[in-house]
Design goal:
It is built from three helices and 19 strands. It is of the alpha+beta class and 364 residues long. The protein folds into four domains: 1-38; 51-58 and 298-358, conserved putative lor/sdh protein from methanococcus maripaludis s2 fold; 67-76 and 205-287, Elongation Factor Tu (Ef-tu), domain 3 (Beta Barrel), CATH 2.40.30.170; 111-172, Helix hairpin bin (Helix Hairpins, Orthogonal Bundle). The two termini are 83 Å apart.
């Protein structure tokens, strides 16, 4: 009985040792493959083994700092012609949608009454001038009083004013174009009776044409008169247009916190029309001799930017100053020189001073 009990105890100890060994092996395996304190450079090749990376040279090219906006085309000048007197329309001197010249008669009103009034005023003026001349002659001989001379002179001056008034009223029967432009759609026809202030026809100057748009107040210090503007429109796909900023609103819109800007563009073929929607790119600055590197070459650390520069087959971690970012390219302001090569892929396996081997990236 005692021998049987001792054998069982030995077997239990053996099983315990086996289980303990299994647990220790499992813990060791977990520590090797799933430990959480693995250093960041655990996969860095041993010293002396080159890390395969992709690299790109610093490129010298132009880069543009621009801001995108939405705009609307406006007429250079736009008015609606309206009569100053009432009358019946007797003639129209323009065609809708066609150019007109400054001084061209666009609308003629019936002038018969005003012509009669002018003739009456001129006849009265003729008589008052004769009376004033006789009174002056008699006054010179002492045959008339000073009062008579003053009365005839005042009557002549009143008749002169009446003639001027009649001529002014007569001139209002002919409505002229105040500037070169394009006539809009007329709102009247021959025979219509019009009243003062009634809309007759719009007149627009569309060459040159204005582009009005807004940018956030953030760009206020960068916006200047004379900057270039590029724009295109959904109504004219595939066409691009250019203009120049000529005015910046001195006030910032308090509702949208935006700044209104106006540019002017040539429109000799009259292809652009007021009211069209435009997609605008305002050029804030242009750097023609900028150092550019791909955006993927940058290794950010906090607020600083670094790159791995390749020197004598080794990676040198270099801090850089950055400028404009456009089309996956970044302008380098400091830290690099033209001709330097920077790592664009494989940075996670690098450390400062690591040996590198440049691999040619696959063709796209």
């Amino acid at each position: 009985m005692q021998q049987t009990t001792g054998s069982k105890a030995k077997e239990n100890r053996k099983v315990g040792f086996v289980l303990l060994a299994i647990v220790l092996c499992g813990a060791a395996a977990w520590w090797l493959f799933f430990r959480g304190d693995e250093p960041a450079n655990a996969h860095v090749p041993p010293a002396g083994v080159a890390v395969v990376v992709e690299a790109s040279p610093v490129r010298i090219d132009s880069i543009i700092d621009e801001v995108k906006a939405i705009g609307t085309l406006r007429s250079e000048d736009s008015i609606v012609l309206r009569p100053e007197i009432s009358g019946r329309v007797v003639a129209l001197g323009f065609k809708e949608g066609q150019p007109v010249r400054k001084g061209q008669v666009l609308v003629t009103l019936d002038a018969s009454i005003h012509q009669a009034e002018l003739a009456q005023a001129e006849a009265s003026l003729t008589l008052s001038r004769a009376n004033n001349a006789r009174a002056a002659e008699l006054l010179a001989r002492g045959a008339a009083s000073k009062r008579t001379g003053d009365e005839t002179l005042a009557k002549m001056q009143m008749d002169e004013a009446s003639v001027a008034l009649a001529r002014a009223r007569l001139s209002k029967t002919r409505i002229l174009a105040p500037f070169d432009g394009v006539a809009g759609l007329r709102k009247i026809a021959v025979g219509d009776y019009v009243s003062p202030g009634q809309d007759l026809v719009a007149l627009d100057v569309i060459d040159p044409i204005k582009l009005e748009f807004r940018v956030p107040e953030l760009y206020m210090a960068q916006v200047k008169v004379g900057q270039a503007v590029r724009f295109d429109m959904d109504a004219l796909p595939g066409r691009g247009f250019e203009g120049i900023v000529y005015a910046v609103d001195p006030q910032v819109d308090v509702d949208g916190r935006s700044l209104a800007i106006r540019a002017r563009a040539d429109n000799q073929d009259r292809l652009l029309r007021p009211g069209l929607f435009a997609r605008v790119s305002l050029t804030l600055a242009r750097h023609d001799e900028a150092m550019l590197i791909p955006e993927e070459a940058i290794v950010p650390q906090g607020t600083d930017h670094f790159v791995y520069r390749i020197l004598d087959g080794k990676a040198a971690m270099t801090q850089i100053g950055t400028g404009i970012r456009r089309d996956n390219m970044v302008e380098v302001l400091s830290g690099l020189t033209p001709g330097d090569k920077v790592v664009t892929a494989g940075q996670l396996k690098l450390h400062d001073g690591a040996a590198v081997s440049i691999r040619t990236p696959p063709a796209p």
